[in-house]
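Lab notebook, bench 4. Still working through the backlog of constructs that have no structural model yet. Next entry is a single chain of 192 residues. Request: give me the C-alpha cells for it.
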Amino acid sequence: MKIGYARVSTTDQNLDMQLNELEKAGCEKIYREKLSGKNKERPELQNLLADLRNGDQVVVWKLDRIGRSIKDLIEIVDTFKNKGVDFISLHNQIDTSTSTGRFTFNIFAALAEFEREMIVERTKAGLQAAKIRGIKSGRKPGLSAENIKKAQRAHKLLNQNNMSMQEISEFLKVGKSTLYRYVKYIEVQQER
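Model written out:
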C-alpha cells in the first residue's frame, strides 16, 4: 500500500500542494500534520509508523516534510527499513527500494543538513555584524502609546486609590505580571 505523509509547519500554511502530489503518486491513505518539524510530538507521524506493514511504501513530497534533522530523517527511514517498508520522496526523486535510491537518499540527507547548518551560520554572522555596527535586534524596548496610558492608569490606581494589584488587574483586564511591568515602567520614567 502507498501511504502518504504531508506536513506544514503552521496552521496558516496549506497542505493542498502536497496532497495533490501525493494523490497523483497513487497514495491510498494520507496522514496530514500541521505542526513544526521541531515539535517532538507528531501524532500523525506516530499513527503512520504504528499502521505500517511489511511491503508498504511511505511517500512524502520532500525530505524535510518528514524529518527534523538528518539524524531524525535517517532514524525514521531506518524504522521503515526494519519494518520492510520503502520510502519515496517525490521532489527529491528518491526511492529506497533501489540501491540508487538508497545512495541518493544518503547524499540528499547530508546536503539538506549542510544547507540548514549554513543558514544558521549565516544568520549568526549577520546578527554579529549588525551588533558590531551598533544595530540592535529583537523587539524595541518600551510600550505602545495605548499601553503607556494603561500603565499610567494602573500606577495612579495603585498609588491614589489604594487598590490591590489583583483589583487593578481585573479592572484593566491585564495579567498581573503585565501590570507589574507597567507600574515598574512608570516608576522608571518618573525617576528620569
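Notes after review: The two ends are 71 Å apart (CA to CA). The beta strands are 2-8, 29-34, 57-60, 86-89, 94-95. Flag for follow-up if needed.
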